[in-house]
Every structure is written in structure tokens, then in C-alpha cells.
Amino acid sequence: MTTDQVRDNMRRDAIWSEYVGSSPSSYCFCCNTRKITTKNFHVQIVDPNNGDMLENYRPICGYCMSYVGSLPLIHYMIINKHYVRKEWYGITYWTNPNLMEWDNLNYCPHCHYTQISTNMYLVCQNCGNVRI
């Protein structure tokens, strides 16, 4: 195994651990319908402008990988009306109730992206849509 292959395998393991945890299977972070495992998932960059950080990658299925093409993953998800689920932000956030109150989480009716609840209204992180 070359150094690049070892580095790529370590990155894949780190991405799986961050977004899925110790479970051997999950669902695609793009379509949320196809099952992925530690053996068959693909790694897709969320936004090419955000650099080569762990937070900029998500585990997705082969089907979605073949259709995302050159689009940033989040744009492909918006176009195809795929929603962002709570695990999108990583295991640190969805296992720590002090960091985010997921009971107050909704999805934007305009672009289906995550809206974060404030005291009085919901604000879409993607399109800025506000719901009172």
C-alpha cells in the first residue's frame, strides 16, 4: 500500500467515525434512503471552496456519487430536494444535547435545507428564508 492509499484510508475512517460513529452501517448523507456501510461508502466534498478539512466531506452511496458530478454536494441535494438530517453536523453535535436542541429543528419549505430555531423564528442556513 502506498502512502497516499494509507492516507486516503485514514481519511475515510475519520469521516465515517465523525458522521456515523461506531455503527457498521448508516444511510447515505445525500439521498438518506440507500444504505451505506464501512466497506461500500464513497466520500464526497460538500463545497470545493471550503478546503480539505474533515468537516467538508460526507459519506454517500455510489448512486449519489455517480450523479453529483461537479456540483457541490449541498447544491445537488437542494436541486433534488434531499434534506439535511441531524447527523450532517457530525457525531459530536447530535450526541451532545447541550450543543443543539434537535427537537426545535425543521427544514426550510423553500430549499429543504436545515433551519435553526432561534427564540422567535426559524432561519434557513442556506437561502435565508425566515419563518416566524
Report a brief summary of the structure.
The protein is of the alpha+beta class and 132 residues long. The chain has a domain at 3-84. The chain contains four helices and eight strands; from the N terminus they run αββββαααββββ.
Describe it:
- About 25% of the residues lie in helices and about 20% in strands.
- The chain is of the alpha+beta class.
- The protein has four helices and eight strands, in the order H-E-E-E-E-H-H-H-E-E-E-E.
- The protein has helices at about 5-20, 60-70, 75-80, 90-95, and strands spanning about 25, 35, 40-45, 55-60, 105, 115, 120-125, 130.
- It has a four-stranded antiparallel sheet with strand order 5-6-7-8, with no helix packed on it.
- The protein has a domain at about 5-85.
Tags for this entry?
132 residues; two-stranded antiparallel sheet; alpha+beta; 8 strands
